[in-house]
Amino acid sequence: MSLFEKFELLSQSRKALGNHGPPPVATPFDSVNSPTRGVVGGREVLLAGTNNYLGLTFHPEVVTEAKAALDTLGSGTTGSRMANGSYVPHQQLEQELAAAFEWPSAMVFSTGYQANVGVMSSIVGTGETLLIDADSHASIYDGCRMSKAQTLTFRHNDPENLDRKLARLGEEAKKTLVVVEGLYSMLGDQPPLQEFVDVKNKHGAWLLVDEAHSFGVFGEKGLGLTESCGLLDEVDFIVGTFSKSLAGIGGFCVSPHPELDLLRLASRPYIFTASPSPAVIAGTRAALRLVVDGQALRAQLHRNIDRLYSGIRALGYELGSPTPGPVAAIILPDRESALGHWQALFNEGIYANLMIPPATPNGLCLLRLSLSAAHTDQDIDLIVEALGRVQGTHQQAIQA
Amino acid sequence: MDAKRAQVDNAITQALEATLPDQLDLDRNSPLSAASGLDSVQIMNLVMEIEDHLDISVPVDVLAEAQTLNELAERIVPLLTKEET
Fold it and tell me: Residue B59: its chain A contacts at CB < 8 A?
């Protein structure tokens, strides 16, 4: 009897991915040389499977300010925000995030995962309810698990289903936090945010929007889907991450409610962990300025999105989202086809993401492509042309 | 209580027909994930269908505690009673 027996199914799933060439899951990178180029197994690849939406990871301001903080403040804080890990730059970043939203409160967490877990687990408690989209990210589910509130789900992107669930709660709806994401990372689809706002207002519920994948991408200041929909006055909390458009690692929560600050005394994932390193904070502060002033970067990203989506649609592939966005998820019929596409695309010199159950909604098998403002027209064309060749090879294999 | 249980069992059958038509003869005493090969998303879709049939909301932890469809049914019955009182 081994403690590891329970992992046998996972082990079999990993073996089924084969051992020829680089692994499609946890692919080891020899190096990453720019926002769009890396080296895997000695081979240069075009990166089309990162979350580097604005391509800021190598931006001179981000890198220079991170290096300067490393020199002046050292490699790590070695402590929690509650103890010795609150440096002035941590507080400045929080003030700058709050100022960007024109709200009074912001909290920085050490990862995006912890931001969701830290907020969800503490802000809603015994006798209250978390009502989350069924396709929510694992960090939202894990935050619910840690919370003492009851957790209910509603059908993905379905305001009518949310309406019914809130109606069943009656007066309890006023003590319910509804959670949606600004952009769902697997299929790349967006929520009908205005409709969700209307439903939560009808029942007097609270609303949190996780803008992990949409921050930097949507809105005049890049604050996310809520800003682009003109709904900043209608939400109670926005959670985000530093590890996508902000090109670092960490997470944040901002709110129009000044009481958010009280979570510093109650949120265990905030309290019982070391604060982000000074270099990460400095780089993120630089990236935040570039995001807020990043209208040109966003315009380039959206040109790339339109070019990729129209190219993929012309090939006849089914996409996970009806609305173009920075994630283009190609729906494939089964695991073998998805794995075959991933490997063939890699052989064409393009790194994408293989997404298979149980990580995907509705058991879908996906080849996930994600875009950056740093991609050129030629990069997008390379991706589409390679997909065309891969598609042709696969159709021949199916017909043979 | 028997009438409630029959109502829940019937809702499970209808939900299976709607979401997993090839699993209608699923052993309701066998572990959902291992024996039936269902993944967590399929199970959640099934539960959402059951919710619609019974006009109830099943908390996520109730779903996590139930290893089989019969265990799920046992845990749904009190919810049904609660909603109707």
Answer: 150-152
* Assigned fold of A9-47+295-399: Aspartate Aminotransferase, domain 1 (3.90.1150)
Helices (H) and strands (E) in chain B, counts: 4, 0
pTM: 0.94
**Each residue's pLDDT tens digit, A57-90:** 999 999 999 999 999 999 999 999 999 999 999 9
The secondary structure of A306-345 as a DSSP string is HHHHHHHHHHT--BS-SS--SEEEEEESSHHHHHHHHHHH
| Nearest-CA distance B72 → chain A (Å) | 15
Q: Does domain A60-292 have CATH number 3.40.640.10?
A: yes
User: Is B57 in contact with A152 (Cβ distance < 8 A)?
Assistant: yes
pLDDT 10s digits, A153-206: 999 999 999 999 999 999 999 999 999 999 999 999 999 999 999 999 999 999
pLDDT: which is higher, A297 or A26: A297
Question: What value of ipTM does the predicted structure carry?
Answer: 0.86
- The span from the CA of A46 to the CA of A38, in Å, is 7
Could you state, in order of their start, the residue ranges of all structural domains in chain A?
Answer: 9-47+295-399, 60-292
- Ordered structural domains, chain B, with CATH: 2-84 (1.10.1200)
Which of B23, B33, B48 would best serve as a mutation to test chain A binding (most A beta carbons within 10 A)? B48
